[in-house]
User: What shape does this take?
Amino acid sequence: MSRPAVCGPEGPLRAGPAVTELPVRAVLFDFSGTLFQIGTYADRIRAVLGPVDGLVMDAILDGLEAGLTDPDVVAAQLGRDVSAKAHRHAFTTWYASAPELAPVADALYEQLREPGHWVPYADVEATLVRLAGRGIPLGVVSDVGWDLRATFARRGLDGFFSSWVHSYEHATEKPDRVLFQLACDELGVSPAEALMVGDHPAKDGGAVAAGLRAYVLPSGAAPGARRGLDAVLRLVEAERV
Assistant: This one.
């Protein structure tokens, strides 16, 4: 019988048994900030308010930034992605924290649900094509308040995915292992055979606790830029050698 691991202050006292990783047989992707990004806040605000000069826009954006610490906004963020109602409330409460945006908070939220406002990163389609060409089933696991399939369909990318796990449909959020397990079950793989790709260290990286491997992309990519998804291809190909 193997002995349980015992750790000292600097790490394990004894090396554990060697672990052989299974090849990656499925890849799960986060949505926003990983495959797609929405337009800038300034562009979205002008779309609902009309022309706004630079100084006024700066004031509005400053108001949004300050709103992130408003107690009502912070409270609304708790459990934000567990239902469509909670998701809408969280975002509209934040938008309305900037006085100029209070009358158009609902319109700004509807932009999130509108597929035309979302742009895939420049290397998304090529990455999906190569993964699909290798017979790798793909899924989406997203903390979100609406069904994403129409957004992917708008760009002709929905056909690459065989599993769609939206947090609001399951009353929970990443990193709850339930969401990752659902996707793995739908793709017919064990968690040990799946790779989760996202941009949030705690939420997407939390897939590791569910038995998956995880690759967390650096933040800050501009809409329409290359996202660095070639690293995912290298990871998958290396595991399948």
Notes: Residues 10 and 78 are 35 Å apart (CA to CA). The chain has two domains: 23-37+117-239, 39-116. The first helix runs from residue 41 to 49. The radius of gyration is 20 Å.
